[in-house]
């Protein structure tokens, strides 16, 4: 709005500026559907340039209003990924993993889940990421399963998180053979207190 006013000495309404920005973004970057359609290609390119990188996409079947499955059509549901250098580097990290999630904004809602480790210099070390439908028990349990299978493969790991109900429920389902423990993040605990 400010740029239009500076260039053309004309004040436009917020709604018109917002719609103009959306059209420009779609023209430059493509629309939302195009972006999700390019996801498998993006994963393939990242896998090719980073051998050993793990991508675990999950797609759901598409159904019509009459609950008839549409043949050869899948809809994106979840995605887990971890880069090979991060997977290898975790072997040299302290056996502590911090997990958290953040909500996505835009046309499609969802949540980005993140797992980070701590290296020998007490620096944050990225481990794994996931795009999921929301921060709930099912998505956290799926994320922890993927994290255990593809990244950690160690026992005696401590998971640190906030007290989100989805995490609490997922942590309760950790198999005993994993040897994982769960602790609360003191910063989140103090903020809630």
Automatic annotation (TrEMBL):
<feature type="domain" description="MULE transposase">
    <location>
        <begin position="96"/>
        <end position="191"/>
    </location>
</feature>
<protein>
    <recommendedName>
        <fullName>MULE transposase domain-containing protein</fullName>
    </recommendedName>
</protein>
<dbReference type="Pfam" id="PF10551">
    <property type="entry name" value="MULE"/>
</dbReference>
<dbReference type="InterPro" id="IPR018289">
    <property type="entry name" value="MULE_transposase_dom"/>
</dbReference>
């Amino acid at each position: 709005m400010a740029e239009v006013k500076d260039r053309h000495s004309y004040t436009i309404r917020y709604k018109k500026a917002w719609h103009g920005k959306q059209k420009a973004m779609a023209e430059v970057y493509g629309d939302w559907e195009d972006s999700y359609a390019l996801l498998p290609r993006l994963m393939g390119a990242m896998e090719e340039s980073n051998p050993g990188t793990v991508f675990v996409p999950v797609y759901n079947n598409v159904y019509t209003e009459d609950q008839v499955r549409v043949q050869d059509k899948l809809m994106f549901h979840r995605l887990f990924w971890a880069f090979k250098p991060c997977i290898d580097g975790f072997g040299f990290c302290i056996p502590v993993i911090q997990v958290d999630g953040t909500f996505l904004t835009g046309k499609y809602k969802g949540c980005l889940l993140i797992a980070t480790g701590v290296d020998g210099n007490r620096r944050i070390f990225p481990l794994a990421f996931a795009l999921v439908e929301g921060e709930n028990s099912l998505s956290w349990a799926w994320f922890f399963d993927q994290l255990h299978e593809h990244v950690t493969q160690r026992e005696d790991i401590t998971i640190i998180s906030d007290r989100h109900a989805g995490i609490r429920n997922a942590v309760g389902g950790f198999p005993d053979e994993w040897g994982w423990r769960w602790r609360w993040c003191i910063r989140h605990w103090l903020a809630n207190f």
